[in-house]
Amino acid sequence: MESESEETPQDEPTPAIEPQPLEPWFIELLACPACPQRWPLHLNESKTALHCWCGRYAYPISPEGIPVLLVEEAVLLDEKADPATVAPPKEGA
Question: Against a cut of 0.85, is the pTM above it?
């Protein structure tokens, strides 16, 4: 009696799924979790991180396109940047 074996999929490469870009309306909802002023975040030029308005922190965006807004995961951009001394962003900026 032959045993029935389940067919297991071979190690086929999974097609790469391009992450969806972060929509501007979504980014407008986000704020820096490290700054008491809750400064807004903006997308960097390479679209790999969200930078705090004060210039102190950058929050990475995972390869799946998900912003990682954990203070422990933030990259310190400018140690001397003081969130308390930054002027608020202008409307539409």
Answer: no
